[in-house]
Amino acid sequence: MIDKLAYNKLVYVPELKEGMIVAETVFSNDGTVLIDAGSIITRDIINHLLNWNVRFVKIVSDLKKRSIIKKVQGFEYRPVAVELGKKIVREVHSSALKVAEEILSNLQEKKREQINVEKIKKVTVKLVDEAMQNKEIFVAMINIKKYKNYLYTHSLNVSVLSILIGITMGFKREELLEIGEGALLHDVGMCVIPRDIWDSDKILDENQFFHIKKHPIFGNDILQTSRITNPKIINIVYQHHERIDGSGYPQGLKGDKINLYAKIVAVCDVFDAMNSERKFRGRYLPYDIMSHLIRNAHLIFDPDVMKSFVRFVSLFPLSSFVKLNTGETCLVVGSNEVSPIRPVVKVLLDENNKRVKKGRIINLLESDEYYIVQPVVPDERLVDAFEDY
User: Fold this and answer.
1) CA distances (Å), 14 to each of 20, 32, 53, in order?
2) Is 53 helix (H, G, I), strand (E, B) or coil?
3) Which of the residues 158, 221, 238, 328 has the least number of beta carbons within 10 Å of its own beta carbon?
4) Cα–Cα nearest to 254, from 242, 265, 266, 262
5) Angle CA(59)–CA(43)–CA(137) in degrees, nearest 5?
6) Average pLDDT estimate for 250-266
7) Can you tell me the distance from the alpha carbon of 289 to that of 269, in angstroms, rounded to the nearest whole number?
8) How does DSSP classify residue 257?
9) Mean pLDDT, all residues of the chain
10) Is the full-model pTM beyond 0.90?
11) CA gap 120, 185 in Å, rounded
12) Distances (CA, A) of 225 to 107, 120, 164, 212, 240
């Protein structure tokens, strides 16, 4: 809550500076909360306000009384803003997951007439608006895997990742809404395929994979009979398994013949699939996933999309876990673009694997005495520590 004794001033949005603190909650004309009081102004928030045609914002003027920003090179750790953001993001993530479950379960039960287009659009608006304000927290939420149904969670995670990469690539809000909606629906065609195939506890045989490869076609058919008519959204569903070298499916499209949104969803789809535990295999370490994607990027993925993906997700993705040379286990809370192998970390477990209540923040780019020795597979204790941090 903002100190009422602090002097507030009205600032023209184009003149806002990163690091300023919002004094009063900003609302849209229809009453939607755009920016909460206490938020730290970032470049993304400024763009968010401009997209909503907000002209002025009340800012806390007496910054000497505010000690909630801790800056390190290439990263800004915001304890108060993070705590506020985590609660909001969890709520949005949870509500979006319920919508994904409702949509996909209805399709699995052949209730195509019950696809709620308005509900899809509404939840996508929430995802986009919160992602524009809380990028780091959003990517952290999708990296902790607790789910009952892989298809529901995967669809939501790919949507969130695609929105985040769209933000990194400078997409406008309207474009982010399109890619978010299309990514949320990218696997609707799976609903036509028996669950014992797509959720198999064994590696698929040739015949089963033949059926799996039809899901973009089935998804296209579903959208063609729905009230979703935006060709960009339909192309995401139809083309997200196409590859720039022509090795993808269902059409074997190459290069620029593939929709840009579909190219983005393609990368996010592979990342989240490998980052998820399946019945027939364990979850890959984020470090190994990024290494795999980088090695194959020039062959099957759009180079511009991959550059943005690597720049945002990093070699050690946000919310992944690493062990330092000191024996301490840490959570990655920030990245350094100039050196992806030296991110910003927060200590969760000490060298004896005991929980640390108030773990320190270490910017590895500025601390030569510390370095990462290996990525860590999260166990239940690490997951609990993450949710409490």
Assistant:
1) 13, 21, 11
2) coil
3) 221
4) 242
5) 95
6) 97
7) 12
8) G
9) 80
10) no
11) 9
12) 12, 16, 29, 21, 19
